[in-house]
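input
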Amino acid sequence: MKILVTGGAGFIGSHVVDALLAAGHAVRAVDALLPAAHRERPGYLDPAAEWIEGDLRDPDVAADAVRDVDAVSHQAAMVGLGVDLGDVPDYVGHNDLATGQLLRALAADGFAGRLVLASSMVVYGEGRYACPEHGVVAPGLRAPADLDAGRFEPPCPRCGRPLDPRSVPEDARLDPRSVYAATKVAQEHLCAVFGNATGVPVTALRYHNVYGPRMPRDTPYAGVASIFRSAYAAGRAPRVFEDGGQRRDFVHVRDVARANLRALTAPDPVPGAFNVASGTPRTVLEMAQALARATGAPPTAAPQVTGEWRAGDVRHIVASPARAADVLGFRAQEDFGAGMAEFAAAPLRG
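output
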């Protein structure tokens, strides 16, 4: 097949390109190489792929990118929480307008293949919680006064009692709590409308906390693993917000690439949403400590728990990988300890 990978020069997109090429597919990759994401042209771009440098918000670029492709892996996006509301136009432009241009170009080209969308765990907002008295409940936003006082766990919205975190299934309600999250929900809805109108099967892969080689250096839009890795590389102690007890699922980028390969090439299309996760929750502090061991950081660079908090952050968000295993046929394979050791030694992207 000839497969288009948008954002193909990026952290995840480049691994998707590599996995597709290794499986014998022809790959066309498009990437805007924006300065916020790429300080220089990456040296890992495989020349076996056809590369288009251009911005999908440009309808001509989108039209060139989709011409005569059999499937699409849509990875292009501006990622991160969103530093402040001044970021809204950039997130909407790069994530939603670009997706709209891509979908229009696909429709105009008569596309009838598969569309795989890179979505995110952030669409869920807070994870799933259960109250001993009221069962599964949806906590509201955490109050700044509670966060300032070090009360980080969301209480039951009905009785105020502590909640028990649970794994989030794909049918959980969507509750975006950041600019980035809102644009990812919009991407899912736009692609679903496109699929309903055209009959194209759409698979939304909801990535959890992805880590691994080719992550960008520390920027306002980087993930927590990259931020910690940059601190260790500079000989600094990483700053762990809240009490470090936030639970996440850290999944290796090669596993994410495998999930894309499976969704694009399974014998039959597999539409719908799927959590892409390891299935093993860890706290942010545990991840920071594992990375410290892998980097050989001295005691002076041990993670520092600061008690600080950020608006838009959620407390616990871990996934159930059951549907991805049962329906998509995807299971994470990478070992966390080995993955952290590899990540610790890998150069960060400029």
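quick obs: The chain has a mean pLDDT of 93.
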